[in-house]
Amino acid sequence: MQGTIDGFSYGLVTPLVAYFMACLGGALGLRCTTRSMLVSHSWRPGWLALGSAAIGSGIWTMHFVAMMGFTVRGTPIHYDKAMTFASLAVAIVMVGVGIFIVGYKGARGTALFTGGTITGLGIASMHYLGMASMSLDGKLEYNTVTVGISVAIAMGAATAALWAAGQVRGFLWSVGASLVMGLAVSGMHYTGMAALSVHLHGTAEPASGESPAALLAPMLIGPLAFLLLAGVVVMFDPLMVMGKPAVAPVEQKPGIPAHTHVRHSAHRLRFRPRRTVEHRGSRTPQNR
């Protein structure tokens, strides 16, 4: 028997809150990645690790906030806690690998493609591992083409976000990139949910179990607290707001070496002809 799926049992509340969480995690993670490019190598791993945890926690929280509005008529839904938290670990680790590649190799070329691909696969792996943690009286089935589209969306979103983080163009630039990343992550989630169908076994009578909100809400407290702490760290770091180094290197200051060189050359050219004229004028043998 085919189960009736409702992904919006709370209306627009869960999609909007989920989108906000994806944007928050993306904004903090991208700012930390940007900050890592402005510090010495000794501080870089710490900022990249903080950025990885922020993005991973943000997309994980987004997923399970959205899943609070997911129901299947005729069967209660339960979640395996070990697998649920395993999906959080997978998200942080795989996003971290991608961010560290971009943080040390730069947001361009092969490094950007590799980092974006791994980060996108981490987002998709988190989503489908989180879906596998569901337990219900039925079987989950997926449309392969739609799943492929959702993975492509995740990879494209991650690559674009990491490229934006590498541009170091200020706070507003990163905010815009985080809004796009949040939209893409949410789009990936609901595209993956559109690929889902549930075939009910009908072996157990429908029971009134705990709602997904009651099951998931306690699990979200830790990641939410971490995102708030990461936000405090970002807020009190002045370079996170500026998004650029405080002092430009001396060799990049415009005009000074070239100006001095040109003036010196002109000075030498101006006095060379006068020496020649004076030398010729001193030859007066008829006065002897």
Quickly count the helices.
Answer: 9
Radius of gyration based on Cα positions: 30 Å
Q: What is the percentage of strand-forming residues?
A: 5-15%
Distance between the termini: 129 Å
Molecular shape: elongated
Q: Output the helix-strand order.
A: EHHEEHHEEHHEHHH
Report the strand count: 6
Major pleated sheet: 2 strands, antiparallel
Strand order of the largest sheet: 1-2
- State the secondary-structure class: mainly alpha
Q: Compute the average pLDDT.
A: 77
Percent range for helical residues?
Answer: 55-70%
Spans where pLDDT lies below 50 across 5 or more residues: 241-271, 275-288
Domain MHYT: 10-199
Protein name: MHYT domain-containing protein
Pfam family, one: MHYT
Biased composition (Basic residues): 261-274
Report on the structure:
This protein is mainly alpha-helical and 288 residues long. Helices cover 69% and strands 7% of the residues. It has helices at residues 13-36, 44-67, 81-105, 109-132, 144-167, 171-194, 212-235, 238-242, 256-281, and strands at 4-6, 71-73, 78-79, 134-135, 138-142, 196-200. The strands form 3 sheets. A two-stranded antiparallel ribbon has the order 1-2. Strands 3-4 form a two-stranded antiparallel sheet. A two-stranded antiparallel sheet has the order 5-6. α1 runs parallel beside α7 (212-235).
